[in-house]
Every structure is written in C-alpha cells, then in structure tokens.
Design a protein that fits this description.
The chain is α/β, with parallel strands linked by helices. The chain folds into two domains: 140 residues, Rossmann fold; 69 residues, no CATH class. The chain contains ten helices and ten strands. The two termini are 34 Å apart.
C-alpha cells in the first residue's frame, strides 16, 4: 500500500533521514521502533508532507505523493495521529471528531462513523459535549485516535500512541489498534514501547540515527538479540 524509496530529509544542516526504504503492506500492522531522535516521527511527517523530502519517492497505492499537500494526501486516504495527541483543548469532543472529517461531505456517514467510534471508545460518548482539555491523558489519546479515524483512512499512522499512559491504558490502546487492523485499515505504528508494538506487528523496522538497520516480522525482531539488548531491556 505504501512504499518509501530512498527518502532523505534534512532539518537545516542535519541529515535526519538517510535514504531509507521500506514498505507498509495493505491490511497489516507495520511498526517503526528506535530511540529518541532516530527519525521515527520525521518519517511519518514526511509521508504526509508536513516536512519535505530532499530526495526519494513516497508511493501510496502506486501513486507518487511527494509533491502533494497534506490535505490532498488526507483525501487520498492517509491519516496521522500525532505524538502528544494534539487535540484541540478548547473544543468539545464532538467538535474534535468533526474536524477529523473535514475532507468529507457525507453527513450521514460522518454521523454513523461517530457512533461507531464511540462504541470503540465508550468514554467518548459520555463526554461528547465536554471540552477536550478536561479529559484525562488516556481519554485524550482515545479522542486523537478516533479523530484520525473520522477521515475514513486506508492508512492510519500512529505516532507514539502509548506515550505517557499508565500500563493498563497502554494495553487498552494496543487492543484498540488490533481492532482497527481487523477492520481492514492498514497501520503504520511508531512506538517507543517496543515490546508491546512488536507483539502485535506483522512487520517491523528498526531506525537508528536516520538509517534503517534491521527489518523482519514482529516475532523475529522480538527474538533478535540486538533488539532485546537495545529496546527490550534484556
């Protein structure tokens, strides 16, 4: 579904991504793991044109999207849930969800999807008229994921969805990601909780200082000695 070929990204004089190449197969969960500053978030931001590639290709469903604007990419079916949730704290839960559907015009479908995602996250239904900033951290993350789904994406990119959450909430979010995948949505997951991410991943890549250094199935990387030492605390 998504192919990244030789992507280079610079921040001024800093070479943030160094010719990385990887694929995200349709209907699968693909994970990028790595330390802080490895380039994981930059990869997602480059895919949706929030930062520009110096060189390389990004293909979504065999169409090159390098030179498209972010809103055009969203309309094609790519959605990103950013690190730190980035909900609108002064807007209600309902208004945050509506903003997730900004590229859609099917009012009936939008209402149906809102009901569907409120079933996925029951706490959101109870708080539809509450301001986003008054929600707990876990509830804000649920809102961020639901907002990302409101565009009806074919590819959902999640940037550190478990960041700052208590262990029980981490498991809840991971469970939701699995449910979303079972509905046929392709997922590209960036996650520092390597153990939780690799357990649910079909494919995974390891990023180190802007370079892809390892790849394999989630199970293979879980059992890789280098990964165990560097990311799994073993």
């Amino acid at each position: 579904m998504l192919k990244v070929e030789g992507m280079n990204v610079f921040y001024g004089g800093i070479h943030a991504l160094k010719g990385i190449t990887f694929e995200v197969p349709k209907g699968k969960i693909t994970t990028l793991i790595g330390a802080n500053g490895a380039g994981k978030s930059t990869t997602l931001r480059a895919i949706c044109s929030l930062v520009k590639c110096k060189s390389g290709k990004i293909l979504f469903q065999d169409k090159e999207i390098n030179n498209l604007s972010t809103d055009q990419i969203v309309k094609m079916g790519v959605s990103m849930v950013p690190e730190g949730r980035k909900i609108f704290p002064n807007l209600t839960v309902q208004e945050n969800l509506n903003l997730g559907a900004f590229a859609r015009e099917d009012k009936e479908g939008i209402a149906q999807d809102q009901d569907l995602f409120c079933e996925l996250f029951p706490r959101l239904r109870e708080r539809l008229w509450q301001k986003g900033g008054t929600l707990s951290g876990g509830e804000q993350q649920m809102l961020a994921v639901a907002r990302g789904l409101m565009s009806r994406p074919k590819l959902l990119m999640l940037d550190e969805p478990s960041l700052g959450l208590a262990p029980l909430l981490v498991q809840e979010i991971i469970g939701v990601i699995q449910k979303i995948s079972k509905e046929g949505i392709t997922i590209l997951l960036v996650e520092q909780n390597a153990f939780a991410a690799l357990k649910i991943s079909d494919y995974a890549y390891v990023l180190e200082t802007g370079c892809l250094v390892l790849k394999g199935s989630g199970a293979e990387l879980l059992n890789d000695e280098k990964v165990k030492k560097a990311y799994l605390g073993e």
